[in-house]
């Protein structure tokens, strides 16, 4: 493997994801509040944050199902994780599940942190984050076998919206803390 070439592909995928994520997040903040009212009170904002986490949960359910079905249909894997290492086919599904668990946990918490400190148009980042998470997970899984460069777009589209939510929350919390 030419690691330098693979790293270039990873950077290209991450840069593409950054541009797409930035465009979707910006468009959401500008246009979504004109289409649906953003919640005002803390309880309503937190509920909105939880609801925006539904795509994360759905992706997690799909990943669990992929592993379950893979185990059920494979003589090498039906014994479960304790019976030995997974077959090559199941290994990809198990890796996808593990990564989805990690990303969903971080993503939903970043959304809830933003929901706890934001109000108004910034809350439109929450549904944008859920949408981008789901698209990122599909791209990540479908391109997994192609290597790090192939799955970089999906991975970055999964994590960047979470970082956008966390970054926005950090800015808002800092502004409030210092009264700017």
From TrEMBL:
The keyword Transmembrane helix applies. Keywords: Membrane, Transmembrane, Transmembrane helix. The keyword Transmembrane applies. The chain crosses the membrane at residues 12-36, 121-140, 152-178. It comes from the Bacteria. GO terms for biological process: regulated exocytosis. GO terms for cellular component: lysosomal membrane. Coiled coil: none annotated. This is MAPEG family protein.
């Amino acid at each position: 493997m030419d690691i330098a070439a693979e790293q270039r592909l990873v950077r290209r995928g991450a840069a593409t994801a950054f541009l797409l994520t930035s465009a979707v997040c910006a468009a959401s903040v500008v246009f979504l509040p004109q289409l649906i009212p953003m919640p005002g009170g803390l309880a309503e904002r937190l509920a909105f944050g939880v609801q925006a986490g539904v795509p994360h949960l759905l992706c997690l359910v799909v990943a669990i199902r992929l592993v379950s079905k893979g185990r059920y249909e494979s003589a090498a894997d039906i014994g479960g994780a304790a019976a030995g290492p997974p077959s090559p086919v199941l290994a990809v599904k198990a890796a996808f599940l593990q990564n989805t668990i990690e990303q969903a946990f971080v993503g939903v918490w970043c959304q809830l942190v933003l929901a706890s400190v934001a109000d108004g148009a910034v809350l439109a980042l929450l549904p944008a984050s859920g949408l981008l998470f789901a698209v990122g997970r599909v791209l990540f899984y479908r391109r997994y076998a192609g290597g790090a460069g192939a799955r970089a777009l999906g991975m970055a589209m999964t994590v960047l919206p979470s970082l956008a939510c966390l970054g926005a929350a950090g800015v808002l919390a800092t502004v409030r803390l210092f009264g700017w």
